[in-house]
Specification:
By secondary structure, this protein is an alpha/beta fold. The chain has two domains: about 60 residues; about 200 residues, 3-Layer(aba) Sandwich (Rossmann fold), CATH 3.40.50. It is built from nine helices and ten strands. The strands form two sheets. The protein has a seven-stranded mixed β-sheet with strand order 6-5-4-7-8-10-9, sandwiched between helices. Strands 1-2-3 form a three-stranded antiparallel β-sheet, covered by helices on one side. Helix 3 packs antiparallel against helix 6 and helix 4 runs parallel beside helix 5. The chain starts with a strand and ends with a strand.
């Protein structure tokens, strides 16, 4: 007996088939029950083999990315591992110093949430395109993204970076020093960014504001950037695909609701406020970029 169960077919106790696999079964003549069961059994075996091969291939991709220093969650935005390998081989987004800084952050107990290696390179290039001398980063963590930003800035430029956690800030200062960026090039502000941003407003207008902190307050950071970027300045927001969930109107918890609402509001304001000409780059996690036009 064949019984419908959602998008699956229950062909025998404990065995389901995806409906699309039925296309492999020829329509039997009326009453040819034995032929039907043979064809169903063959299709079941084939379907299981396909799923096993897909699982094996995906596991191999993840291992291959890991060997290249690519996190499954912080990928390049391209699922073909051969393309990913090619991009890493040609563009070399992470040098040994950056690798050691990322590893040092792990040793110091910082969470593994810094920008991906290619997103760091994207930041460096985007900042370099603006000729930036005055940059604000909201969300320092261990300094990995800040080092990319500093590498893209003019040699006399200064980065103001804001970090809530004092331990993270200490690790970042050490990492900035290791990368050759001392106090004359970067200031690490400790405490809530929404409070401390007022301390640098006298230095506005800024060339770039990069946002990679608590997602609930992304709209607040953006409103600050609107008022303190120069015309032609750039705002950049990371994680703006919301881990693939940004389109959902309702999260699985109140906290997720707040996060997704924050990200959607950020994207909507950048795209539709009339203050920016904006796009969202299809990195693995989404990178929203807007140029201030008024």
């Amino acid at each position: 007996m064949i019984e419908m169960r959602s998008r699956f077919i229950l062909v025998m106790p404990g065995i389901r088939m995806d409906i699309k696999d039925l296309s492999k079964i020829q329509r039997p003549k009326f009453g040819d029950a034995q032929l039907l069961m043979v064809q169903v059994a063959a299709a079941v075996v084939n379907s299981k083999a396909i799923r096993k091969a897909q699982h094996t291939r995906r596991a191999a991709e993840v291992r291959e990315w890991s060997l290249m220093g690519i996190s499954e969650d912080k990928g390049f935005g391209q699922s073909d591992p051969k393309v990913v390998e090619y991009a890493h081989r040609v563009f070399k987004p992470e040098d040994p110093l950056l690798t050691s800084i990322r590893e040092e952050s792990r040793r110091q107990g910082l969470p593994d949430i810094e920008v991906g290696v290619f997103d760091g390179l994207h930041l460096e290039v985007l900042v370099g395109m603006t000729g930036a001398r005055r940059v604000v980063e909201i969300g320092t963590l261990g300094g990995y993204s800040g080092i990319h930003i500093l590498r893209g800035m003019q040699p006399t430029g200064h980065l103001h970076t804001f970090e809530l956690n004092p331990h993270h800030a200490d690790v970042a200062r050490e990492n900035f020093n290791r990368a050759g960026f001392g106090a004359e090039r970067v200031t690490v502000h400790v405490g809530p960014a929404l409070t401390n941003l007022a301390n640098i407003e006298r230095e506005a207008p800024f060339d770039v504001v990069f946002v990679d902190a608590d997602k609930v307050h992304y709209p607040d950071y953006l409103r600050w950037a609107m008022e303190h970027l120069r015309i032609g300045g750039v705002v950049i927001g990371d994680n703006t695909f919301g881990w693939g969930q940004v389109y959902r109107e309702k999260g699985v918890s109140d906290r997720e609701d707040q996060v997704l609402t924050g990200l959607r509001t950020f994207n909507d304001l950048v795209a539709n406020s009339g203050r920016f000409r904006a796009t969202i780059l299809p990195t693995a996690e989404g990178l929203t970029v807007g140029v201030k036009v008024r």
